[in-house]
Design brief:
Mean pLDDT: 92
Radius of gyration: 19 Å
Largest sheet: 4 strands, antiparallel
Strand order of the largest sheet: 3-1-2-6
Strand content: 25-35%
Distance between the termini: 64 Å
Low-confidence stretches: 1-10
Length: about 240
């Protein structure tokens, strides 16, 4: 209990101020002060790499790094040193002592453990997990079985509240689903529910929060799941 109290005390001491956070596809993390960003915003990246997440955050924000090995590593923005856009940044697998060949699949940034994690699998299933399932009383940095390993992960998305999503299959079909149609589970490695039925030889290739201004979005909406979705209109 003493160590738990010490952890809580340490957390209270983390200075809170705004920072800009960037994560690259290859797993490089940059925490940049607003002043530094204004002075230079040309990112240095390894050849073929790109920035896949950029956001404004607090220095004491919680970071959840989900990996290709069905695990999640927990950190604070404060755990990372300030850097510049002109630097590569911290390589997250090394920084967090990940296993050999373990890479970052998705990073969720949050203040509190509210909302849901959504996991979209290539087989067309979607798992909706209460974020509170990842909260720990002690300062544990790594959780195993963070999501199901029954099908390859296509993508993960953190949402604070229910919203509409567009799921796309390798056959070109699209499906618009409201996450309220998917029951939330407390089990982290739940296989999820069938959301988008896949024809033989095809798989889910992307899932993203729907842009309400997307043309013909109503075409892809469904009242019930699972659904095969629809192909884009010819026009």
């Amino acid at each position: 209990n003493d160590s738990e109290e010490e952890d809580e005390e340490k957390e209270e001491e983390i200075p809170d101020y705004p920072v800009s956070i960037f994560v690259s596809r290859e797993g490089y993390f940059k925490k940049i002060s607003h002043q530094s960003w204004r002075m230079g915003n040309n990112h240095k990246l390894k050849e073929g790499d790109e920035i896949i997440l950029s956001c404004e955050a607090s220095n004491n924000a919680e970071l959840l790094f989900f990996t290709n090995k069905n695990q999640v590593y927990k950190a604070k923005a404060d755990d990372f040193e300030f850097t510049k856009a002109s630097a590569l940044g911290d390589y997250v697998p090394s920084k967090l002592d990940m296993e050999p060949e373990e890479t970052v699949a998705y990073m969720a940034l949050l203040k509190e453990y509210n909302g849901y994690m959504l996991f979209f699998f290539e087989n067309g299933k979607c798992a909706k997990v209460n974020l509170s399932s990842y909260a720990t009383k002690t300062n544990r940095k790594k959780l195993i079985k963070a999501y199901s390993d029954k099908s390859p992960l296509c993508t993960a998305i953190y949402i604070k509240e229910d919203c509409e999503l567009i799921i796309t299959s390798s056959n070109g079909r699209r499906l618009c689903v409201n996450t309220a149609q998917i029951s939330a589970k407390s089990s982290k490695n739940t296989q999820g529910v069938n959301a988008m039925t896949q024809k033989k030889g095809h798989r889910v290739v992307s899932a993203e929060i729907a842009d309400p201004n997307l043309p013909f979005i109503a075409r892809y909406r469904t009242r019930s799941i699972p659904s095969p979705g629809k192909l884009p209109a010819q026009d």
